[in-house]
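Working notes for the structural subgroup meeting. M.R. asked for a predicted model of this chain before we commit to crystallization trials. I am recording the input and output together here so anyone reviewing the notebook later can reproduce the run.

Input as submitted:
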Amino acid sequence: MQTAISYGHQARITHLLIDRPEWREYFERMVAWEESHDMQPEWAGWVWQNVNCSPSIINSLVAMSIVEMCNQSRSYTHYRLMSLADTKEALALDEPDAQRQPINVDALFSLVVGHDRVKQLLRYAVKADGAVHVLLVGQPGTAKTLLLSELGRLPGAEFYAGSTTTKSGLVGLLLEKHPPFLILDEIDKMEPRDMSPLLNLMETGTVTRLMHGVQARMDMETRLFAGANDVRKLPAPILSRFAMCEFQPYTDQEFLVVAREVLIHRYNQGPEMALHIAAEVVKYSTDIRDAVRVARMAKGDPRAVLDVVRCLWPKQAKGVVTPFRPR
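Returned structure, recorded in token form:
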């Protein structure tokens, strides 16, 4: 008797059916075969010929814990669905409306001032015929994270920090969620040994995992967008597969505009408070994250802004900048 699997299992199958609609027929045949044989404990399971599904696809489903290997001999390998009920429910669900909506790429980057060449290249990469991978290179405060955060709004995108990403975790993410867009900030902080799945994905469009002595392989068209401070830390094979964009930090006037917009639209600051924070922070930094830190600590108190700024930067300010005031 099969045990119930969590809702996450059903959601995983639903997501896979959205991303791989041509696999629906395989699941339908698996369900039909198992229902017709009543799946008694003594029943060995089905083989790939029974459901007319290639072993490579079945191995991918095993790696994603959707199908389990229940019996293996020299001649045959038998399988079962991990949850017949969850699979049937996933097949019955309609495709979510959000997945049907086209990506409005032109709506991205509304908070990013300047860098028009980079923004246009990113739009082309998102809409390209086939996977194109882009690396944003620049020192902290150059809007890399802001641009990547905007890309993280794309349907199905997964956003990760390179400093927290491991090989096993990355493979599990790719096989389970099959994201159309993978966003990796600070990719230069990833351990080189953890980058092999990225290289394989960028070079061949496949992800593999060895599980139960069987190598599962899945083809996917995931587009990788990454940010790095120092490309010298990246392996040459990885670097060569990126379209690379280098850009400079914001000027003071650009920072005032961007920080104000970000604080208003992302962090619920009033227009005057946002401008006040930006005008104080720009005396010491043009990193948007510094403006966000000040806003969070000041909690809407204009006097606290000055105190926080003095604590963060006790040394002499770099100069007084006239705030940009939109008409």
